[in-house]
Amino acid sequence: IFKDAKSAEFLAAVGDKKSLSLLGGLPEVVVTGRANVGKSSLLNSVIGRRDLFSPARKLFAQGRTQTLNFFRVGSPPGRLVVVDSPGYGARGRPEWGALFDHYLETRKQLCRVFILISAAHGMSATDEAMLSSLDAQIQSLDGTRWTLQAIITRADALQTNGRAQINKIEQDIFRISPTCLPPIITSCPSKGITFGIDEVRKSISHACGIV
């Protein structure tokens, strides 16, 4: 489903709870993470486009990054939807979190939540809080609706002792969130070797029940 990159397209930017009900039908995955964790670069690489998820595009001007942004993947009518959520942390706002929580609690077609952790910066206090919250929601649902997986981004930024830093992040993930699936280590620099993208694609397809 990721071979035809040109067929991927933006569907809608949703900024309020009522508008969520206007979209639906296809299985969904949502991606969250701190601001500047490399979310746009990762998603563009997964879809196979250079600018579909780029905040610099006109589509995201005038505060569009404050919304849940829905993108259809696969030739029409599509196979699945990737949802890009606002970055959390110092730049986040309470109303963004309220919309995201509502989405997690009510979205029946949601199959998996991906949380992005920066390899270079490691686990922050806000990452820990988000991961802990997601884990608690999964446990309250008995794992019957959506699953959780971490993606470690920008592994290319690591130099000396990089493996030890990755191991520390993995240990922190499993300590904070026992329900989290094994993390995927990725790198998608503008220049250099890209890796981990096929694993992310496989995980998305598997979560959505697409072979």
UniProtKB/TrEMBL annotation:
Lineage: Eukaryota, Fungi, Dikarya, Basidiomycota, Agaricomycotina
InterPro entries in UniProt: EngB_GTPase, G_ENGB_dom, GTP-bd, P-loop_NTPase
Domain EngB-type G span(s) in chain numbering: 25-210
Molecular function terms, GO-annotated: GTP binding; hydrolase activity; metal ion binding
Xref: SUPFAM superfamilies: P-loop containing nucleoside triphosphate hydrolases
Keyword flag Cytoplasm: no
Pfam entry (one): MMR_HSR1
Keywords: GTP-binding, Hydrolase, Magnesium, Metal-binding, Nucleotide-binding
Domain of life: Eukaryota
Annotated protein name in UniProt: P-loop containing nucleoside triphosphate hydrolase protein
UniProt keyword RNA-binding present: no
A Gene Ontology cellular-component term: mitochondrion
